[in-house]
Amino acid sequence: MTLQVEDLRIDIGGRTVVDGVSFTVAEGARMGLIGESGSGKSLTALAVLGLLPDGATASGSVRWNGREILGLPDRELARLRGDDIGMVFQEPRTALNPIRTIGRQIGESVRIHERVSRREALRRAVTEAERVALPDPERIVSRYPHQLSGGQRQRAAIAMALACRPRLLIADEPTTALDVTIQAGILSLLRSLVQDADMSLVFITHDLAVLAQVATHAVVLERGRIVEQAAVPDLLRAPASPVTQALLRDATATLWHPEIDRHRTEREGGQRHE
């Protein structure tokens, strides 16, 4: 299953916010969309799933496994969401329904797409809770979002996105609201889940150090346009655009990565030599 985005343009209120974005995510690939706030990376992902906010329009082409999905009726897109393409949003507190149990929310897409009984959906919810390493899965599925920690809520949101075994996962800044220790655990979880299931991944972030933990290739956006595309190790070693250079300087120091560390060592050594 391949995602192909070609010449994507998004307009809001007469203003172009994404302009000419093109990229391909091959089956099993792990790609990042990275840029500063307002660069258009989240809007690009929302356009893929037909979830743009009211007043936004998209043109160009988005093909999933060769089928054009940009502009499909919402009913047809709903069949893709969760089944073929899963999405994890930035803030699980808003992604989860506060008045429904975790088990019901994880099992909901299973009931919709696979037409199973409530009992079977709950059984699957327990399985998915265990898969994302939630503690005491049989008990936690009966709890409500406010009874979980931030990291547990994000794990529940990941379980929801993966319950129907999609072939592509889109993760929109899934660790931004978490502290560094919990971030590392969520990144490790996502990496292992994607690799074990041989899923494709689109990971959205503003943090190059975070991206280096999960993606092998990246598209760098600035003000809705692509300014650089490269393998992540190349971006870490020799970023070509000023935007990527700034992202490298700002990379989270507490999330160590060997390429970032080597780049800093070489840079600092050069400065001392001068």
Summarize the structure.
With 274 residues, the protein is α/β, with parallel strands linked by helices. Helix content is 43%, strand content 24%.
Kindly report the oligomeric state of this protein: single chain
CATH architecture of the largest domain: 3-Layer(aba) Sandwich
Q: Low-confidence segments, ≥5 residues, pLDDT <50? A: none
pLDDT averaged over residues: 89
Note the run of SSEs as H and E: EEEHEEHEHHHHHEHEHEEHHH
Indicate the proportion of strand residues.
15-25%
CATH superfamily of the largest domain: P-loop containing nucleotide triphosphate hydrolases
Helix content: 40-55%
Rg, please?
A: 19 Å
Structural class: alpha/beta
Q: How far apart lie the N and C ends?
A: 51 Å
Supply the key terms.
274 residues; Rossmann fold; 12 helices; 4-stranded antiparallel sheet; 6-stranded mixed sheet; 2 domains; 10 strands; alpha/beta; single chain
Walkthrough of the structure:
It is a single chain. The chain has twelve helices and ten strands. It has helices at 41-48, 74-80, 92-95, 102-114, 118-131, 137-140, 150-162, 180-197, 208-214, 232-237, 242-249, 258-273; strands at residues 3-12, 15-25, 30-34, 56-64, 67-68, 85-88, 168-172, 200-205, 217-222, 225-231. The strands form two sheets. A six-stranded mixed beta sheet has the order 6-7-8-3-9-10, sandwiched between helices. The radius of gyration is 19 Å and the shape is globular. The model has no long low-confidence stretch (mean pLDDT 89).
